[in-house]
Write a structure and sequence with these properties.
Number of domains: 2
Oligomer: single chain
Structural class: alpha/beta
Largest sheet: 8 strands, mixed
Distance between the termini: 20 Å
CATH topology of the largest domain: Rossmann fold
Helix content: 40-55%
Strand content: 15-25%
Number of strands: 8
Radius of gyration: 20 Å
Length: 280
């Protein structure tokens, strides 16, 4: 197994990546999500890359600008398309036997991948999305009502605290009321524009998915509000639901957001490997 460090020259900054060499002609590019490092939470990205390499699949783990060992200012996830494109080019240069690549991302990295698909690249044959980030006021409020407040109202512990005076009931009711009102807020669909912003990034994600001709695998966690918010969006919005219906979907019912046990991590590894095999 061969791993080595790469420094990729961006416009005024350097991106850091780790390349895992292997013989297959389909590679996997792992994009870092959130304020972390290409190693990933509980070394998830390292372990996944080594698992893939042990099964002959090359991979590259990327720190986007301002992340981990990469220089430059940290860009918002909806502004990472140029970094992803730079990494794809470098991956193919370093592994000239590659014919196609799968993009892999967790949370806002999954969102960044869908946004990138608005600029098509025939080398991208598939994407693996884990718990994509689609946080908006209305969708988050709906998720909180369904998966947080409902559970609390049905909890014996909640009512014991409320009746015994151990709960700030007025504050809790106020929070519930604000969430209920937010869930009713009307939000118009914003068409994807040339410049993606915090206000229209969810529409840009949908646009990228709709025009992608490759395969898609969604891996979602059962014990994660980010995943529930994404699945709720797909249930509530026909265009999102249509995209999800056309994709593969693996739901790991008890998993946390980052698949933080050996069992959940191994399930992600196996699902990722199986998906790449369907493309090879």
């Amino acid at each position: 197994m061969t791993e080595h460090y790469l420094s990729l020259a961006g416009t005024g900054y350097q991106l850091s990546a780790i390349l895992h060499q292997a013989t297959a002609t389909t590679g996997v590019l792992l994009i870092v999500g959130g304020p972390q490092y290409r190693v990933g939470s509980h070394r998830q990205f390292v372990k996944l890359s080594r698992y893939l390499a042990a099964h002959s699949i090359p991979s590259m783990r990327l720190d986007t600008a301002g992340m981990g060992d990469s220089s430059g200012s940290k860009a918002a996830f909806y502004q990472q398309t140029a970094d992803i494109e730079l990494a794809i080019d470098a991956f193919f240069q370093q592994c000239p036997h590659l014919t196609q690549v799968v993009l892999w991302g967790l949370c806002d990295a999954a969102s960044a991948i869908l946004i990138k698909l608005n600029r098509p690249d025939p080398r991208i044959s598939g994407v693996i999305l884990l718990n994509p980030w689609v946080r908006q006021q209305k969708s988050h409020a709906k998720t909180m009502l369904k998966h947080y407040y409902l559970k609390r109202l049905l909890s014996r512990q909640f009512w014991h605290k409320a009746l015994s005076g151990g709960l700030a009931l007025r504050r809790s009711l106020g929070s519930f009321w604000q969430t209920l009102q937010a869930s009713k807020t009307h939000t118009d669909a914003t068409p994807a524009q040339l410049t993606v912003t915090e206000q229209n990034y969810v529409a840009a994600m949908l646009s990228g998915w709709q025009q992608f001709n490759g395969k898609v695998l969604l891996i979602s966690s059962g014990n994660d509000l980010t995943a529930q918010e994404f699945l709720q969006l797909c249930a509530d919005t026909p265009a999102w639901g249509k995209c999800l219906q056309a994709a593969g979907h693996c739901h790991i019912s008890d998993a946390s957001h980052t698949f933080s046990t050996a069992l959940w991590r191994e399930q992600v590894e196996q699902q990722s490997y199986n998906f790449v095999q369907t493309i090879n």
